[in-house]
């Protein structure tokens, strides 16, 4: 089916309360009409997500902030101007008439994002309202970055899967909460903390625990079946030998160049050449670790520890706990 027709069908599906998987620049999302409580309930059921985990609402353009939120502070507008469309989610005060309480697990706030992807834009623009969408994987599984990942994970539970090719960024959006006294970063992702701080004109404190932190970022929500061990580049050989001696099937994910002299039995996954490729390929490699039957995946975080490197390191740290 031509993409235009597929998008039109997806818009109809959303209007009819059905679920639609769609590409964004970060990861694929599983969308439902954010103003339709039944559709949102179905979304949580298919995803297998606890009811108190809030979902991000996606819109076509920044001017829709005021349609979904109350008391939008100036700093939210500055962030929207700077980064939308893009990999930033802004948490603001929810308008109860436009965003069903189930979307945010009853919270008074809502995370809003304008994704930077032509297919997402066509879908959101055609639909007109807010689309509630978590990443299109079952709860606790690795996020999908291709349409094939979505189909493999969700199967017939989703009526429409829009295929927009592989995701360009590969890790989820950065989440900034602007409802408190000072802006706080709830999740590092596609937009760097330094860039956020430049726009808001002050440093931020990461807030990953507590009442207003983002549920689902606490535990290992980014893990494959293989157990992840984050290691230093200098200890790969020793660690690999120890785990191989235990009888485990051991793999390695590290940015190129891979050091010489590693054990022959170590399965070296195709090494990303830079941090952008690392982020883009991260979830593909984690899936590969499972496909290749690895028990243990040793991971060396990107040498570049800012921006996308911080997002990759964050996901791997969580996956290892
Ligand atoms: O890049 C992304 O953000 C992708 C694409 C599809 O947009 N979406 C995504 O959604 O990663 P999900 O549901 O897998 O993760 C959303 C995170 C969760 O950790 C959730 O707790 C947090 O955002 N979140 C959403 N709304 C929130 C709110 N009102 N307050 C605090 N955290 C919120
Ligand atoms: Mg997710």
Q: Compute the CA-based radius of gyration.
A: 20 Å
Q: Main β-sheet, in a few words?
A: 11 strands, mixed
- Roughly how many Å apart are the termini? 43 Å
Outline: globular
The helicity comes to 25-40%
> What are the bound molecules?
threonylcarbamoyladenylate, magnesium ion
Oligomer: single chain
* SS strand fraction: 15-25%
Question: Helix- and strand-based class?
Answer: alpha/beta
**Helical stretch tally:** 10
Residue stretches low in confidence (pLDDT < 50, at least 5 long) are none
Spell the H/E element sequence: HEEHEHEHEEHEHEEEHEEHEEHEH
Description:
This protein is α/β, with parallel strands linked by helices and 321 residues long. It has helices at 3-15, 37-47, 65-68, 74-83, 118-127, 147-154, 193-200, 236-245, 275-291, 307-319, and strands at residues 20-22, 29-33, 57-58, 69-70, 88-94, 109-113, 131-132, 160-161, 174-177, 184-187, 205-206, 227-230, 250-253, 267-268, 296-299. Strands 1, 2, 3, 4, 5, 6, 7, 8, 9, 10 and 11 form an 11-stranded mixed sheet that branches. Strands 12-15-13-14 form a 4-stranded parallel sheet, sandwiched between helices. Helix 1 crosses helix 5 and helix 9 runs parallel beside helix 10. The longest helix has 17 residues, at 275-291. The termini are far apart. 47% of the residues are buried. Residues 24, 26-27, 29, 53-56, 89, 91, 104, 107, 109-111, 113, 115, 133-135, 172-173, 175, 186, 214-217 line the site of threonylcarbamoyladenylate.
């Amino acid at each position: 089916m031509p993409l235009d027709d597929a998008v039109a069908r997806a818009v109809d599906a959303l209007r009819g309360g059905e679920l639609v998987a769609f590409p964004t620049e970060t990861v694929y999302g599983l969308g439902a009409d954010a103003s339709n409580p039944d559709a949102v309930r179905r979304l949580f059921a298919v995803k297998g997500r606890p009811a108190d985990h809030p979902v991000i609402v996606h819109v076509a353009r920044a001017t829709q902030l005021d349609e979904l939120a109350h008391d939008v502070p100036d700093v939210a507008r500055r962030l929207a101007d700077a980064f939308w469309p893009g990999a930033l989610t802004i948490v603001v005060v929810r308008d109860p008439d436009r965003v069903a309480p189930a979307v945010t697990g009853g919270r008074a706030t809502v995370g809003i994002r304008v994704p930077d992807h032509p297919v997402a834009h066509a879908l959101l623009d055609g639909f007109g309202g807010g689309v509630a969408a978590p990443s299109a994987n079952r709860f606790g599984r690795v996020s999908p970055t291709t349409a094939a990942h979505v189909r493999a994970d969700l199967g017939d539970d989703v009526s429409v899967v829009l295929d927009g090719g592989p995701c360009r960024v590969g890790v989820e959006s950065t989440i900034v909460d602007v409802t408190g006294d000072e802006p706080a970063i709830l999740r590092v992702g596609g937009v760097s903390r330094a860039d956020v701080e430049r726009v808001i004109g002050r440093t931020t404190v990461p807030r990953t625990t507590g009442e207003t932190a983002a549920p689902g970022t606490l535990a290992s929500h980014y893990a494959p079946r293989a157990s992840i061990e984050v290691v230093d580049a200098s200890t790969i050989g020793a660690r690999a030998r120890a785990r191989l001696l235990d009888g485990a099937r051991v793999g390695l994910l590290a940015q190129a160049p891979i050091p010489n002299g590693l054990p022959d039995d170590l399965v070296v996954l195709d090494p990303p050449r830079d941090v952008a490729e690392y982020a883009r390929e991260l979830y593909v490699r984690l899936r590969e670790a499972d496909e290749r039957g690895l028990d243990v995946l040793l991971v060396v975080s990107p040498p570049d520890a800012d921006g996308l490197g911080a997002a990759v390191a964050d996901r791997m740290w969580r996956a290892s706990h």
